[in-house]
Amino acid sequence: MAPVRQNEAVSTTFPRTSKKTLGYNLKQVEEFLESTRQAYDDKDARTRLSAADIRHTAFAMAKGGYSPEHVDAALERLEDAFAARERDTAARAHGEQAWLDQARSTAQVLINRLGRPAGHRFDRTSFLSTGYNRADVDRFSAKLVKYFQDGHPVTVDDVRTIVFRPQRRGYREAQVDLVLDGVVDVMLAVR
């Protein structure tokens, strides 16, 4: 183990990768965590940070950085905490039923999109571009429709971690990702 130099900051927030392995940039992660602490503790809500903001956070990669697996798990817990707070705030302001009605309305929009015929749920990329494999997305879309309509078991983590193979003329990734974000929002809203 190398000695710690006097000017070198030591952080034990998350495990670090080896000096030769890429991990998340230490400074970026620390700064983001500090901003989430401030936003969560801000009783006057001057600091705006939402569950969706946390979901869309990305960090640069650096050798010897924080373990992506550990940081991602912490970000998921933070997203859950912010989503619960957003739900509670909205329910207090507009009533629990209004919150659930909004979630139900959003779920119906998602069902309408996800329930389209296989191969036609999303726009496709050009012949020269790759997108998400249509069969993979269609299969997962059918599973999500069953979740919304029949209570088929699907977890937030299932949606967060789904990986689709690449395919020429596949579905446009941005469209699929946007719908999956909506699914996560609805799932967190009704927890």
SSE sequence, one letter per element: EHHEHHEHHEH
Q: Biggest sheet, open or closed, and with what strands and sense?
A: 2 strands, antiparallel
Strand order, biggest sheet?
1-2
Question: What is the share of helical residues?
Answer: 55-70%
Task: Give keywords.
single chain; 191 residues; mainly alpha; 2 domains; two-stranded antiparallel ribbon; 4 strands; 56% helix; flat; disordered N terminus
Description of the molecule:
The chain has helices spanning 26-41, 51-55, 68-94, 96-114, 134-150, 156-161, 173-189; strands spanning 22-24, 61-63, 130-132, 166-168. The radius of gyration is 20 Å and the shape is flat. The protein folds into 2 domains: 22-92, no CATH class; 95-189, no CATH class. It has 7 helices and 4 strands, in the order E-H-H-E-H-H-E-H-H-E-H. Helix content is 56%, strand content 6%. The model is unreliable at 1-10 (pLDDT under 50). The N and C termini lie far apart (45 Å). Strands 1-2 form a two-stranded antiparallel ribbon. A two-stranded antiparallel ribbon has the order 3-4. With 191 residues, the protein is mainly α.
Topology readout:
Elements: E1 22-24, H1 26-41, H2 51-55, E2 61-63, H3 68-94, H4 96-114, E3 130-132, H5 134-150, H6 156-161, E4 166-168, H7 173-189
Antiparallel strand pairs: 1-2, 3-4
Helix pairs in contact: 3-4, 4-5, 4-7
Summary of the model, kept short:
The chain is mainly α and 191 residues long. Helices cover 56% and strands 6% of the residues. Helix 3 (68-94) packs across helix 4, helix 4 packs antiparallel against helix 5 (134-150) and helix 4 runs antiparallel to helix 7.
